[in-house]
Amino acid sequence: MKKEVGLKVEIDRVEDGLAVIVLSDDDKVKFNLPVKYLPDGARDGDHLRVTFKLDEKSRGEQKARVSDLLKELTSGDKKEKSDKSGA
Amino acid sequence: MRKRSGSISLLVLLVLAAAAYYFLRSRPETHEPVPGPVSGKLVIHFLDIGQGDCELLQLPGGETILIDSGDSGAPTVDKLKSYGVKEIDLAITTHPHQDHIGEMRDVMRAFNVKEVWDSGFPLSRKTYENMLQEIKDRKIKFSTPRRSLTRKFGDVLVEVLAPGNEFIGDNPNNASVVVRVTFGRKRFLFTGDSEVESWADMMSAGGEMLRADLLKGAHHGSSNGTTASVLDAVRPSVFTISCKIGNDYHHPHPKVVSLLEQRRQEIQVFRTDLQGDITAVCDGNRIDMRAEKQVPQDQLYLTGDEAAGKVAGGGVGSPSRRAGGRSR
Question: Does residue B6 lie within any of the structural domains?
Fold first, then answer.
C-alpha cells in the first residue's frame, strides 16, 4: 500500500498570476496554482517535485474537532427531546 | 566612327544596368501586397479548440498551412479531418507553450506534415521535447525562421515578422513566430502570444509591415497582447480572439474588450469562445467572415469573465450590460 507518491511536474506558463502546471508524464493532466504558492522566481519551464503523503495525524485531529463541534451543536437537540419526553 | 558610337552605347547601357542593379539592391523591403490579379480563394479557419490557438489555412493552390495545434487533448485532428485536410504543407509552431503545441505530435501522427517552422525557443517542457522528437523521427523538414524570411505558395505570400535574430528576454511568448499572409489586396496577421515587448520590437523594425486587414488577437485577448498602439499599427477591420469560455485567465481581458468596443465602427470582432469555429474566405479583394454560431453583436464585447457569467451583468444569453442602441 502506497503511503506516499512523488510526482514530477513542469510549469508550462504563467498566465495572470496563475501557473499552469502539467504532469511531466501525462500532459493532459494539468492544473492552475497561484504563483504565490510556488518557490520564489518560479517561471516557465521550471520542473518541480511534488510529494503526496497521507497525513493520518492531521486527519485524526480534524475529525476530532468536527466531531466535537457536531456533539456540541446537537447537545441542545437531545436536551430539547428529553425535556419534551419528560413533560 | 560607327564602331566607336556603338562602344559608347554599350558602355552607357552597362552603366545604366549597374546603376539599376545597385538601386534595386539597396531598396528596402517594401512588404507590399503581391501585385497583379489572383485566382481562387484563400480560406482561413480559426478553430474552436478550447483554450489555445489553432488556425488552418487552405490556400487557393491546394496547399495547407497549420498555425499551432491547441492544447493536449484538444479535438484538433478530428476538426482538421472535418475540414478535408489530407496533408499539411507547412506547420508553424509559434512558441512552445502547451496551449499552442500540445496536439502537434498527434497532428503529425495523423497527417503527413511536410515542413515545420518553429520558434526555436528552448523551453524545458516534455511536451515540446516530444514534439521535436516526433519531427526528428519522421524526418520532417525543420527550421527556425527569423524576421524578413518570405515564402510564396502560388499567389499567397507568407512573411515572417518575428522573432528577430535575438530572443527578447526569457518569456516564450515574446519568441512567437509572427507571420503575415498576403493574398491579392488582403493581409492577415497571425501573432501567436506576442506581448508588448515583441510588438515594440516589430514596430521598431518597421511599423508598416504590421498593416493587416485581419488581426488574430495576440495571446487570446490578454491585455499584454493588444494595446491601442498595436491596433493603430495594424489598423485591422477584423479582429479574432481564440479562447475558451470560462477560462481561468480572464481572456479576453476587460482592457482589450474596451479598446475593441471603442473602435467598433472600424473593427469587427469574432470570438471562438462564443461563436465556435470562425472562417474567413478571401478572393483577394474582400474578406467574407463566417461563424459557426450566431450571437448578438453586443455579446462580442463581453469580457471573458462576463461571458462566463462569473461577474454580475454578464453571461451569454443574459442581457448584456452594454445592450441597447449599439448594434452595427
Answer: no
pLDDT in tens, B168-181: 999 999 999 999 99
- Selected residue of A7, A13, A25, A48 to mutate for chain B interface (largest B Cβ count, 10 A): A13
Domain with B274 in it: 34-319
> Cβ A10–B124 below 8 Å, yes or no?
yes
From chain B, the residues in CB contact with A9 under 8 A are none
Tell me what ipTM this predicted complex has.
0.80
Give the global pTM.
Answer: 0.85
Sheet holding A4-15, edge to edge: A26-34, A18-23, A4-15, A47-53
The tally of domains found in chain B comes to 1
Work out whether strand B186-190 and strand B214-216 pair parallel, antiparallel, or are unpaired.
parallel
Question: Per-residue pLDDT tens for A25-67?
Answer: 999 999 999 999 999 999 999 999 999 999 999 999 999 999 9
DSSP 8-state code for residue B92:
E
CATH number of the domain enclosing B181:
3.60.15.10
Q: Which residue of B has its CA nearest to A32?
A: B248
Is A30 within 8 Å of chain B by CB? yes
Q: Does B167 touch chain A (CB under 8 A)?
A: no
Q: What average pLDDT is seen over chain B?
A: 89
* CA gap B198, B225 in Å, rounded: 9
